[in-house]
């Protein structure tokens, strides 16, 4: 039975039905048995979920995936079928009492504190703090890391593409066919939208999440026609219903001849491909209000664009407005500029207002680098359809989230390593973002749970967690506490309501706009500062020395 949200409504299960208590690593169950057998399974533990390095060579990350984590724990229950499978899969012979314990497990004694989904986040700062019986929280480790890792990675990838493309361009996610399986496709569509994309081609994601859908036709549709003579039903009503054009094909051919005879366009083309023309006419008859044509099946400038313009002008005669073209190959900068010139010439020659501003969409294995190159070359593209490099996160395979024990039975714990970047920051913490006079975030600071929070206009010492010489005083003009309670369990605390995807997307866009430009740039971005309070710094190093074995030289 699903648990209730803050407003009393039941929280639905995870979007992907494969996300169940069994979606975890075997060692989580073997540890749970060992905890149970030792009588430690109910000990109160605190774990932090965080990452150590920003992806894609950048200096920021977009946090995503917490909604799916809450959906999981709200419906966390092992079935009899699950327990039967575990009984046969765990090594050795586990006592029957352990399986009785598993039958009774839920997340009513778990608390989850999280940074708001869609926030800009940084290494070392806990994205999630999970508190509860150690055996239960350990079972949540793998699914939580799984649900946050890819979601945050692809949302960050989307945000980076948006940053390069600019605010004025439409970004369309076209990655379903190249994604890593159905779940990769669905998740990519959701989190690319969160990261700033405007629409998706993925129909299932449109239904599930309310993401706007976009799409036209493929090269196969164009090449499936031989000529306009194949079209049987040639009639098309006027857009206002005032009459019917009985032969739309003839109207298009008339316009094509006019274009061919136009002095300013005479050197652009001679004869266009008639199979392409037939396909365009057929598509326009089916979707007169949404006619957007793929123009590179044969030749963009000598066939695709003139054929499109003939159909678009015929539609205009009947009161419709064509949507534009899509370029899927070739020199996109050059071809988009040539298309724009052609459209402007048509507008001037035939006095069709707005024709010169016809939308030009580009696709064809685009990524951050190609968008940047197009910007430097100069182009006339209005919208970009991006797939493979976006949804597969081709530039980086994983974010590298980790889930570390920081406290058990009120005793802080630390994980040590010869690699300082892998030393964990112990104890239950509170996390704050400190803002400067210009409204930009200056630094994130972690403090012990019982420390006084930073105050506006009061100086606070911010220290690098591990580097003694890196420290600075900050006088914040605004203080934001980052971790909020999203799952109170039976603690009686008030939970923050999960926002809609649209609200989360708006938060992401707003958060990115608040960041200082030098943190955001693609080349040599300035690292954002993550710090700890002076008290927490001293405690980290006290615990480090206390836990590290002392060597002996012979």
UniProtKB/TrEMBL annotation:
EC top class, in one word? ligase
- Could you give one GO CC term from the UniProt record? cytosol
Under Gene Ontology molecular function, one entry of this record is: metal ion binding
Catalysed reaction, written as an equation = 5-phospho-alpha-D-ribose 1-diphosphate + nicotinate + ATP + H2O = nicotinate beta-D-ribonucleotide + ADP + phosphate + diphosphate
Report the pathway entry.
Answer: Cofactor biosynthesis; NAD(+) biosynthesis; nicotinate D-ribonucleotide from nicotinate: step 1/1
Q: Does the keyword Transport apply?
A: no
Record flagged with keyword Ligase: yes
Q: What cofactors are annotated for this protein?
A: Mg(2+); Mn(2+)
Q: Where is the Nicotinate phosphoribosyltransferase N-terminal domain?
A: 22-149
Question: Could you say which EC number(s) this protein's record lists?
Answer: 6.3.4.21
Pfam family, any one? NAPRTase_N
- One GO process term, biological-process aspect: NAD+ biosynthetic process via the salvage pathway
What does the UniProt PTM comment say about this protein?
A: Transiently phosphorylated on a His residue during the reaction cycle. Phosphorylation strongly increases the affinity for substrates and increases the rate of nicotinate D-ribonucleotide production. Dephosphorylation regenerates the low-affinity form of the enzyme, leading to product release.
Q: What does this gene product do?
A: Catalyzes the first step in the biosynthesis of NAD from nicotinic acid, the ATP-dependent synthesis of beta-nicotinate D-ribonucleotide from nicotinate and 5-phospho-D-ribose 1-phosphate. Helps prevent cellular oxidative stress via its role in NAD biosynthesis.
Q: Which family does it belong to?
A: Belongs to the NAPRTase family.
| The name this protein goes by in its record | Nicotinate phosphoribosyltransferase
The organism's taxonomy opens as: Eukaryota, Viridiplantae, Streptophyta, Embryophyta, Tracheophyta
């Amino acid at each position: 039975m699903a648990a209730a949200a803050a407003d009393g409504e039941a929280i639905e299960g995870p979007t992907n039905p494969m996300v169940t208590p069994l979606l975890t690593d075997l060692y989580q169950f073997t540890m749970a048995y060992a905890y149970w057998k030792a009588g430690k399974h109910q000990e109160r533990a605190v774990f932090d979920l965080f990452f150590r390095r920003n992806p894609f060579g950048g200096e920021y990350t977009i946090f995503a995936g917490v909604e799916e984590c809450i959906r999981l724990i709200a419906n966390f229950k092992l079935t009899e079928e699950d327990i039967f499978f575990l009984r046969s899969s765990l090594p050795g012979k586990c006592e029957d009492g352990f399986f009785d314990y598993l039958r009774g497990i839920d997340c009513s004694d778990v608390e989850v504190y999280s940074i708001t989904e869609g926030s800009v986040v940084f290494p070392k700062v806990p994205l999630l703090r999970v508190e509860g019986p150690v055996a239960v929280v350990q079972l949540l480790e793998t699914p939580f890391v799984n649900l946050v890792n890819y979601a945050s990675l692809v949302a960050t990838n989307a945000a980076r593409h948006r940053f390069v493309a600019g605010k004025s361009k439409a970004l369309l996610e076209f990655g379903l066919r190249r994604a890593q399986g159905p779940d990769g496709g669905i998740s990519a569509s959701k989190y690319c939208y969160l990261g700033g994309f405007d629409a998706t081609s993925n129909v299932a994601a449109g239904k599930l999440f309310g993401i706007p859908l976009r799409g036209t036709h493929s090269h196969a549709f164009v090449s499936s026609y031989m000529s306009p003579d194949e079209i049987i039903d040639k009639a098309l009503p006027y857009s206002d219903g005032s009459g019917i054009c009985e032969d739309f094909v003839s109207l298009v051919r008339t316009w094509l001849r006019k274009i061919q005879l136009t002095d300013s366009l005479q050197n652009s083309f001679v004869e266009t491909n008639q199979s392409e023309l037939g396909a365009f006419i057929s598509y326009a008859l089916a979707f007169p209000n949404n006619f957007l044509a793929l123009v590179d099946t044969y030749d963009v400038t000598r066939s695709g664009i003139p054929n499109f313009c003939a159909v678009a002008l015929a539609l205009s005669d009947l009161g419709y407005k064509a949507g534009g073209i899509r370029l899927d190959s070739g020199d996109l900068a050059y071809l988009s500029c040539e298309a724009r010139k052609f459209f402007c010439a048509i507008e001037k020659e035939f006095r069709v207002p707005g024709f010169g501003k016809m939308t030009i969409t580009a696709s064809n294995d685009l990524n951050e680098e190609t968008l940047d190159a197009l910007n430097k070359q100069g182009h006339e593209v209005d919208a970009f359809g991006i797939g493979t490099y976006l949804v597969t996160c081709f530039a980086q395979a994983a974010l590298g989230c980790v889930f570390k024990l920081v406290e058990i039975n009120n005793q802080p714990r630390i994980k040590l390593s010869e690699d300082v970047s892998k030393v964990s920051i112990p104890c239950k913490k509170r996390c704050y973002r400190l803002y400067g006079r210009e409204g930009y975030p200056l630094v994130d600071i972690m403090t012990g749970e019982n420390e006084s929070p930073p105050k506006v206009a009061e100086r606070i010492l911010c220290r690098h967690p591990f580097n003694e010489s890196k420290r600075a005083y900050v006088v914040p003009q605004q203080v934001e506490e980052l971790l909020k309670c999203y799952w109170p369990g039976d603690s009686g605390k008030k939970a923050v309501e999960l926002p809609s995807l649209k609200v989360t997307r708006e938060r992401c866009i707003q958060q990115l706009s608040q960041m200082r430009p030098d943190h955001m740039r693609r080349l040599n971005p300035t690292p954002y500062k993550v710090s700890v309070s002076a008290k927490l710094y001293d405690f980290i190093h006290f615990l480090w020395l206390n836990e590290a074995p002392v060597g002996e030289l012979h």
